[in-house]
Amino acid sequence: MSQRTQCPWDWPSDKESRSAADKLHSYVAMWAEPHEQEPPRKVDLPAYTLMRLTEFSRLRELVAEAEAEAVSDAKREGASWQEIGRRLGITKQAAQQRFGGR
Prior knowledge:
The structure is a single chain. The protein is mainly α. It has four helices and no strands. α3 (81-88) crosses α4 (92-99). The longest helix is centred in the middle third of the chain and has 32 residues, at 45-76.
């Protein structure tokens, strides 16, 4: 039976994790469904739509950076490519190809 590794910090509570996920979901939803909400002021709608694309690109970059850092940390702490791939929902080969050079 394996034991949970002790960490020097407290893990976020389920409530804190849900809160962070809810905030991210709300933020993404705000940009994903603009027709359900009026823009904050009168804006040029084509420009507003393009701004949404820019925002999603920025979010994708931030998530990719955080994911790469987490993979790097996991490898440094001894995780296998198989475990990393499983957590990411990809094969170990895909994980190694995607993050192996880092």
